[in-house]
Amino acid sequence: MKRILLLGGVTEALAIARTLGPHHIYSLAGVGRVPTDLTCEVRVGGYGGAEGLAQFIRDQGIDLLLDATHPYAAQISQNAATAAQLTDIPCWVLRRPAWQPQPGDDWREVSDWAELIDALKPFRRPLFTLGREPLQHLDEIPPEQFWTLRALEVYPGNERCEVIGARGPFLIEDERELFERRQIDVLISKNSGSTATEPKLEVARERGVPVVVLKRPVLPGVEREFGSVTDVLTALTAESIQNL
Question: Whole-angstrom Cα distance, residue 35 to residue 37?
């Protein structure tokens, strides 16, 4: 009987986890709410790098590693690919397609934090939608800027930054209100490709607000790559391992 170890967050990975039987394991890093209504086993926490993950795979008798983590979780994806090689099991990956700029968009791609900060120099009211990373830089905010940060949870800000705790999906009406109320003049975003967070891009387009986009990291090659949950579930069904 084949056994799956599913690595993921709480969007596409959760949709896959809801189809898995008790023989399989759904693994979460621990950020965000942990689902309690699944049939499969749920594991929360890290593994101690690729070697630790490989040992877990051996100990648990895992036959297939399925990486459905965030497109920017580069270290986890690299550890997964390495651990699969060390244990000689296949590694499949779900990588949602990236957003593509549309007519009217003003996208400015950056590769790292230094490039991002440089790109923000002309602006005064940025909206960060990068998760928790900007929290490490609150003491670097220029005096002419006020930052709005949106993350999964509320965190302390300072006199030049407010942190909003919110979870998608986001409605376009609410995004319009946020941009208007806070007079956002630039949006900072990862290219996650998620439909749940895409409305912010629509509002930026409507308002002529530039978008500073953090480029996707280069991810390792694996045995099979999928672009949607449907494709993954079809492949699992074909392998007859989905509901075991």
Answer: 6
